[in-house]
Each structure stands twice: as structure tokens, then as C-alpha cells.
Amino acid sequence: LGPEKPQKPVVHFYEAHDLHSELAELKNRLEEGPLPDRPDHTAVVLANTDALIPVLHYLPDGPVNITMGYPLRLSGPAKFLEKLLELVLKFSPERGFLTEGLIELIKTPYVGVSAKTISELKNFGAGLITPEKALELSGSERQKVKGLFEKVIWPLLDVTTLRQLAQAVKGVFEFMRFYSLSPFEKEAMATVVERVLYPLENLVFSDEVLERKELFELFLEMLRRARVPFEGEPLTGLQVMGLLETRLLSFERVMVIDVNEGVLPKVDEINPLLPQMVKRILGLPDYLEEEAIIRYHFERLLNSSKEVHLFWQYCTTPGEVTIEGKKVKSRYVEKLIWEIEKSREKLFEDTDEFKKRFKKSYLRLDPVSITEKTYPE
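Request: output the structure for the sequence above.
Response:
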């Protein structure tokens, strides 16, 4: 007798019209059986880490271990810095700042001005506004806006090196500390200091004079790549992780979220710091090699499981990777379906697997009811 042939996992497919229907179905399937009592029982794998916070809201009550970090760029402090740098970058010494950009900045909770001041700036009407005019329109909150200019904006206008930029950002954080910050916001700010500012200050060219645009682009590139870490207990409960965190791990039941083309695998992004040609010269893996690594880990995870649930979306939003205006399932899902069709010698829709394992949610738009209006006689 030869070696026992490994048993293939039972794969279930779910096509959702949006993220909420996708996560609602995830919650239903997690609640179908008892909560996992072993760390190797159930894993929720996120192909798109941006969905981490929404996913956490849909998980059933019970112990959860999160092994992946949250994208720093989605945190409040990071978004504030992006708006701030964009405002400074478009500053004109003769005409001032973009009015809309200044309004977007002071609307954040880190500045703390009232709706009245924001309304005054909106009613100003002009596309550009000088600092003097902004202070004039701030009324009783003039000191708050003045502090924003003096402690946050002006120091950034003067930076010429990465070290100076790092010091200016630290000054921004000192300004923000006067307002109520959540523990997560404080953790995000600490991550900026540790993962972005400290490396920038210690580069060999950190004291080299650069153009303002180059300084800001380098800072934002590092900001977008950093993650806020979570602390967890790996030996308890439901495991929530990214695909690469599943390396060398096996689970009885696996649920993979956002298995869409352009997400799994990701599209080939242009990295201004490390183009594909430079990667090849340095012997680093290029996009094709990275995609092969992702495909290997995805297939290994599925083949080491007993039960697999794959979720993806078919509606879309502007800016998404789509085909003919819609999101599409990943090529990895298409391969699984093709393997079923090849073994059954019929289309997937005509197989028993389709009836048992495929489910789809539909976006139903109820017609608006017409309210009959009555008039007094």
C-alpha cells in the first residue's frame, strides 16, 4: 500500500455585494458552531488589512488573538499629517493657503475649533486665504488658530532636511497632546516616532538638503507602509491574521475575507523608492516573485485545512481595481472553480458543489414610496 492520499478541504464560496454583507455572512458562519477552544481550530484571514476594524465589530463574543498590525495611514494622527503636509506643500508666499485645505485641517479634533469658525472660513468664498485673514475670521478662537500656524504650519515651511522634518513632526505631536487622545491614537503617534521619524533621523543623508516635495513624499511613503501593532494571546480563541502570518500554521477551519482580484494578489504598485528594476539589480524579489510567494502561502493554507470559506465582493467603489466597473473574484478562486469543473467535466453552476457550497448576496433597492399629500379645502 502506498502513502495515504491527503484529503482535500471542503471549500465554500460566498459572493457579497459589499463589505457589510460579506462580514454579516462571516459572523453567521462563525456562530454556526461552538466558539473555537483551541488556537488551531479557526482562523479569520484578511487579504485586505484595511478591513481589520470592521471585521472586529462583526466577530462573536469570545477570546480573540490578533496577529496583524493595523495600517498606520488609516489612523487619525496619520490622516492629520497627510492633510497638513498637503496644505503646506501647496502654500503660496504671495497668496496664502488653499482655503479648502485649511478648513479640512482645522475641522479635525486635534485643532478643536467650533463650527462657527469653520462656517466663517467657508463663507469667505475665495480659493486662497492668507494667514492674517484666517486669524481675522477666527474671532474668539483666534489664539487656537494662531497656535496652529506658529507651532505646526510655520515649522514645516522651514524644513530643508529629513532631520528637520522629523523634529517638526514631533512638534506637531506636542501640539496634538493638548487635546483628548484615545489610547489607539497615542499608540499610532508612538508608531510614527518609532517606525518613521527615528529611521529618518538616522539615514546617512538625513542632513542633506532636499526639495520640500521630496522630503514630504519620502515621509508619506514610510508612513503608508508602517503598521500599528496589536498585542495578543496566541494560545487562545479565534485567530485573526493576515495571509503571511499564517506561514507554517494549519487550522481546521479557515475563513478568508476579500479574496478579490487586485487584493489577493495585489496590483503591482509603483514604488518611487525602490522600482522593480532596482529590485532586480539588488537581488530582491520583484512583483512576479512576490505574487508566486503569496499564491504558495494561499494554496498551502487551504490544503492544510479541513474546511475553507472564501468571501469576495462584486460591487465596487471609485478607485478600486475592477473589470467593466465591477470587482471580480481573485484568480485564485477562479483556479479552484476550474479544478472542480475539470474533475466533474461540467460547468461549476451545474455541479452539486455549486448548490451546496456557493452563496451570493444581492443588493436590493426598494422603490421609494410616494407619499400622498393632502391640501386643506
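The domain at 10-69+235-360 is CATH 3.40.50.300 (Rossmann fold).
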